[in-house]
Amino acid sequence: MRFLLIEDNESLASAVVERLNLDGHAVDHAATLDGARDCIAAADYDLILLDIMLPDGDGRVFLEEHREAQKSTPIIVTTARSAVSDRVGLLDLGADDYITKPFDFSELEARCRAVLRRRGGVASNAVSFADAELDSTAGELRIGGEGRSLRNRELRLLEIFFASPGQVFSKSHLMDRLFSFSDEVNENAIEVYVGRIRKRLEGSTARIETVRGLGYRLVARQ
With a threshold of 0.85, does the pTM exceed it? Predict the structure, then answer.
């Protein structure tokens, strides 16, 4: 998944980016509202982590703009304000969730997973297709009761396919979902990761099919 972190505290931002990168997420960081707007104009995001007090304005302005533009990207607000009225106000403005600073990284990760589950309309971190089950929390692919551990980017790539079986994803789209602006990679990296997850799916009726000239999709063998 690709996240946008809007946070002006550089040490906190570095720690959050590092932790989410370890989970296999691509994270772009903006320290200002203007920087965040530039990122939004250049890329699509699965989730936005938004600080409130920023050098060039109030994060609530960004939140309002985002929702008024009919953009549905989930937003988790990170705030030092703990008053109930402040939290209620953020939710009423369109925030999907909030977390109070200082926060534990494991709680942040759990809130990210919960918000993404709600966005996908699922109730748990495990999703199934054909005879395969993908458990995002365990980082595991299960086929016929056999668990196969996944590396982080393998997991994130499978999440994309399992969320939309049958949909064709181009290499450029997958690049945008898996890598941040700071990652120095090309589309060959997608071929490598697709090859890896095909090996993980060996023995399953689920497979990643190449659609010539267009990209890849998750299908079930007949």
Answer: no
